[in-house]
Amino acid sequence: MTGPADARARGARVERLAADWLVARGLALEASNQHAKGGELDLVMRDGETLVFVEVRHRADARHGHPLETITLTKQRRLIRAARFYLQRNRLSCPCRFDVLAVTGLPPELEFEWVVNAFDAY
Description:
Blueprint: H1 4-23, E1 28-36, E2 39-47, E3 50-59, H2 73-89, E4 96-106, E5 109-119
Parallel strand pairs: 3-4
Antiparallel strand pairs: 1-2, 2-3, 4-5
Keywords: Endonuclease, Hydrolase, Nuclease
GO molecular function: endonuclease activity; nucleic acid binding
Protein name: UPF0102 protein FHR97_002428
């Protein structure tokens, strides 16, 4: 039987693997698991001059839907609010974007689907 602690540990491992996967594709890790007002930022990365807020969504399989289906409008608003707070707290003013990295499978057999600029802040 798995509990919340197991789920958190698995989620943290998947986020570390996701960060490594993105670094291998040219992004630089700035921060992870940044708690901000109303939400959490999974990964904060740099793509050149652009600060990238990456939401990592994981599903062991697609039985309960694809991970990308979990990025609702409410979730987007929470991420935007958390990103604004992060920028303000760190006194940053730079181009930003929101990416989503959908991860399916169980380590070490993971599949990644990276959606660059998945949604806009409004």
